[in-house]
Design a protein that fits this description.
Blueprint: E1 3-9, H1 16-25, E2 30-36, H2 43-50, E3 55-59, H3 66-73, E4 81-84, H4 96-104, E5 110-114, H5 125-142, E6 154-157, H6 158-162, H7 173-183, E7 188-192, H8 208-223
Parallel strand pairs: 1-2, 1-4, 2-3, 5-7
Antiparallel strand pairs: 4-6, 5-6
Helix pairs in contact: 5-8, 7-8
Length: 225
């Protein structure tokens, strides 16, 4: 089973090299698609140096957001499954194996890596509260029982993700994807994953405006035909 890894990147010069090394080290047949979202810190130049076999590097001429980067990378994905990988070091690519297992065994078509299944993750209180509220709203609106809707580790059979018409440009792509998958009647299976937080000084970008946008996105797609 071949895995396509799509990595949206924006101003991650400090971490992108190590992220790619960790992704490359996972013992699974894969392709890596990196979309630089018009970084201004030299990340683009570093990515040009890191291009090589198994790495496809694409560049946005303007900053458009995570959702737009995902749309850009998706047509290049040729794997049986697709996973989204952030370009920081909060998520461990070694968890790909746990995410892939239920799909390989025919038990799921979509697998989310949950940071909350085992215990409370090492997360700032405001981020923990925001994640719990958004996941609870998702469960209320869509009749599901997720523990971590906002996880960045989402793995899909390729046909499932490519069948979605993704519209969101920014971080609200996370609730949009979840909403559209659930409305199609596709069950999301969760597996526990590792998580290592970073703060805004280290480059974390998501904030309260993204929380508001996520709430609106969940409500909008629940009642939109």
């Amino acid at each position: 089973m071949r895995l396509s890894v799509i990595i949206p990147v924006y101003n991650e010069r400090a971490t992108i090299r190590e992220v790619l090394e960790r992704v490359d080290a996972v013992p699974v047949d894969k392709q890596v698609i990196i979309v630089d979202d018009c970084s201004s810190d030299g990340t683009g130049g570093m990515l040009r140096e890191l291009q090589g076999p198994g790495h496809t590097v694409l560049f946005h001429p303007t900053n458009r957001g995570k959702g737009a980067a995902l749309r850009t990378g998706l047509p290049y994905a040729t794997g049986d499954c697709i996973v989204i990988q952030d370009a920081d070091l909060e998520y461990d690519p070694r968890d790909y194996l746990a995410l892939l297992r239920p799909v390989a065994e025919g038990r799921a078509r979509v697998v989310y890596g949950s940071r909350f299944q085992a215990s409370r993750p090492p997360m700032f209180l405001r981020h923990w509260v925001g994640n719990v509220l958004l996941t609870s709203l998702t469960n209320l609106l869509y009749g599901t029982r997720l523990t971590d809707m906002e996880t960045c580790y989402k793995l899909f059979r390729a046909d499932v993700l490519k069948d979605l018409a993704i519209e969101s440009d920014r971080f609200n792509v996370e609730p949009e994807i979840t909403a559209k998958i659930l409305k199609k009647g596709v069950t999301i299976l969760e597996v526990p994953i590792a998580y290592s937080r970073r703060n805004f000084a280290e480059g974390k970008k998501i904030g309260w405006k993204d929380f508001v946008s996520a709430v609106w996105t969940l409500v909008k797609y629940r009642f939109r035909s």
